[in-house]
């Protein structure tokens, strides 16, 4: 396999090495449900309050929503039963009910009387002035069932007859980070992340529901010049084919879906921004200052919170003002827009950090070999006067330790390839290291939306693990640093809210539903259910009004035709 391609035209170089249509609706309808998450996390406990009644009473519409969510059947969770002073109605409702205290909490589990539904029992308890909720069942996030995730009995992903796994996820402690987020009640998801690259294979099943429409800023390459733009950001057909698909997959491939690989964000969203064009005569692809600058400004306009650039060139020692003034201005504007910018450091060890990785506004990511203490033989090193590598991450072994650096190795990075090329492959390059940092940044921004880009950068760097090769990306460390930074005050107990959730396709509303209720102490999420939807991919938009403030957010959800009938998608608000 060809593991490195020098694709420089007009100075643009991919710093990676290596080698369309939505679901139909059929005749059935489906349900999308989940939680709308307030800034700084979530918890699914809710007090049930009806309009015009006291706290602890119940709204039938809210109960209908709550009890459709997965919960332990045959019981109701009751909060803070007082030791005395229960009203006669509460005493009557609880008479003969089996109660079990939940050790270490102020909760009691009340067994639902025979012949009564959990929902009806909860209604009676709430009308008696008690705080009640379902005993929700959570899905463990810690070990995705994707065969490429390392450990257990998972078989790996077969590439050219040999099974490989994603050992790099273990080395950066992705599992520890996901577990920590779960323990904090935070979403394991990702904010909108723009991937400036060679395009993306939009037909890849691992990217179904994970892509925004995107744009192509280099429709064709004429000589050295990008010409034309269009709305189709599909992969280039020559050169380092599959490069952009690989980057997108490392960040946001569908996870816990029983196939292929796991991604850093599980269910994040990628904005594919194609900035490379193809030259069939030379079998190469390249970008230009014009296409990169236009792509970067487009990503800002589209609301990306993280931008991954697995590309660069080694011009003028990589100093931004000398290297590419037009792109440098766009980078500065993106940084001013509170976006985390990540770039691959470069794939030649003696030419310094490539631009834009060398820009002070950008996190420069180098690659480590199979040994975390050793930079991969191809990974760029800073020249005198340049900044240091901000972070390193696994980038593949390639020919590290041999006389030929640019070759293949079984210790390279397992990632996505175009469907027509087998869907999965091994790649090596700082292009594969950078998306791991971008994916972690997207993970942090979704879980801690009150932190700005500078704080996310700080959490990534301070949470890193010190190695002989530099500051090694550590997802758990980054999560812990971000958690220590956040200081958002939860909404006050008893805050009434109004929530509206819309489902759209092609910008047109398919359905919308409004919910109302009251948050319990520390509550940071409100559930929603949208029913009667045809199969397909939807943009979900949520707006929740709470304590005089309005929080909004969006997400994508896909219900495949012939599925079990449900899709689950949380919506993070800001």
TrEMBL record:
It comes from Deinococcus carri. Residues 189-477 form the Peptidase S8/S53 domain. Gene3D superfamilies: Peptidase S8/S53 domain. It comes from the Bacteria. PROSITE patterns: PROKAR_LIPOPROTEIN, SUBTILASE, SUBTILASE_ASP, SUBTILASE_SER. Residues 555-574 are annotated as: Disordered. Keywords: Hydrolase, Protease, Serine protease. The keyword Cell membrane does not apply. This is Peptidase S8/S53 domain-containing protein. The active site is at residues 197, 243, 431. The lineage of its organism: Bacteria, Thermotogati, Deinococcota, Deinococci, Deinococcales. Belongs to the peptidase S8 family. InterPro entries: Peptidase_S8/S53_dom, Peptidase_S8/S53_dom_sf, Peptidase_S8_Asp-AS, Peptidase_S8_Ser-AS, Peptidase_S8_subtilisin-like, Peptidase_S8_subtilisin-rel.
């Amino acid at each position: 396999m060809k593991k490195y391609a020098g694709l420089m035209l007009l100075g643009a170089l991919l710093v990676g090495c290596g080698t369309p249509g939505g679901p139909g609706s059929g005749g059935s309808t489906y349900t999308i449900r989940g939680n709308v998450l307030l800034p700084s996390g979530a918890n699914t406990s809710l007090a049930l309050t009806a309009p015009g009644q006291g706290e602890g009473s119940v709204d039938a519409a809210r109960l209908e929503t709550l009890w459709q969510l997965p919960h332990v059947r045959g019981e109701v969770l009751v909060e803070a039963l007082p030791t005395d002073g229960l009203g006669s109605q509460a005493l009557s409702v609880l008479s003969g009910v089996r109660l079990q205290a939940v050790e270490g909490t102020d909760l009691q589990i009340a067994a639902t009387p025979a012949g009564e539904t959990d929902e009806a029992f909860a209604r009676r308890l709430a009308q008696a002035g008690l705080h009640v909720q379902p005993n929700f069942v959570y899905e463990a996030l810690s070990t995705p069932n994707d065969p490429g995730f390392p450990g257990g009995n998972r078989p790996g992903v077969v590439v050219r007859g040999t099974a490989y796994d994603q050992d790099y996820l273990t080395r950066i402690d992705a599992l520890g980070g996901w577990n920590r987020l779960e323990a904090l009640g935070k979403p394991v998801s990702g904010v909108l992340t723009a991937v400036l690259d060679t395009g993306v294979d939009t037909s890849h099943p691992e990217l179904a529901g994970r892509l925004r429409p995107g744009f192509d800023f280099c429709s064709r390459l004429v000589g050295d010049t990008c010409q034309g733009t269009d709305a189709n950001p599909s992969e280039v057909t020559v050169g380092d084919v599959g490069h952009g698909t690989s980057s997108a997959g490392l960040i946001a491939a569908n996870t816990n879906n029983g196939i292929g690989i796991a991604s850093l964000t599980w269910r994040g969203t990628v904005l594919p921004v194609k900035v490379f064009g193809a030259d069939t005569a030379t079998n190469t692809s390249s970008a230009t200052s014009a296409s990169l600058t236009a792509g970067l400004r487009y990503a800002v306009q589209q609301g990306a919170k993280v931008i991954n650039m697995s590309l660069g060139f080694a011009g003028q020692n990589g100093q931004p003002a000398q290297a590419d003034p037009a792109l440098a201005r766009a980078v500065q504007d993106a940084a001013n827009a509170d976006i985390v910018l990540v770039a691959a450091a470069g794939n030649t060890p003696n030419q310094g950090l490539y631009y834009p990785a060398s820009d002070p506004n950008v996190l420069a990511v180098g690659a480590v070999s199979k040994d975390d203490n050793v930079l991969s033989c191809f990974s760029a090193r800073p020249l005198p006067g340049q900044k240091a590598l901000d972070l390193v991450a696994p980038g593949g072994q390639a020919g590290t330790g041999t006389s030929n650096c640019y070759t293949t190795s079984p210790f390279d990075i397992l990632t996505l390839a175009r469907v027509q090329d087998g869907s999965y492959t091994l790649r090596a390059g700082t292009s594969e290291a950078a998306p791991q940092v971008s994916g972690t940044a997207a993970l942090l921004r979704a879980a801690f939306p009150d932190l700005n880009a500078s704080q996310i950068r700080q959490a990534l760097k301070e949470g890193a693990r010190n190695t002989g090769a530099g500051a090694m990306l550590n997802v758990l460390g980054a999560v812990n640093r971000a958690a220590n930074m956040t200081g958002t005050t939860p909404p006050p107990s008893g805050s009434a809210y109004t929530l509206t959730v819309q489902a759209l396709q092609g910008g047109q509303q398919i359905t919308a539903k409004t919910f109302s209720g009251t948050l319990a102490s520390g509550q940071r999420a409100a559930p929603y259910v949208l029913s009667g939807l045809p199969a397909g991919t939807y943009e979900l938009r949520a707006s929740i009004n709470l304590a005089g403030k309005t929080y909004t957010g969006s997400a994508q959800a896909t219900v495949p035709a012939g599925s079990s009938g449900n899709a689950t998608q949380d919506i993070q608000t800001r």
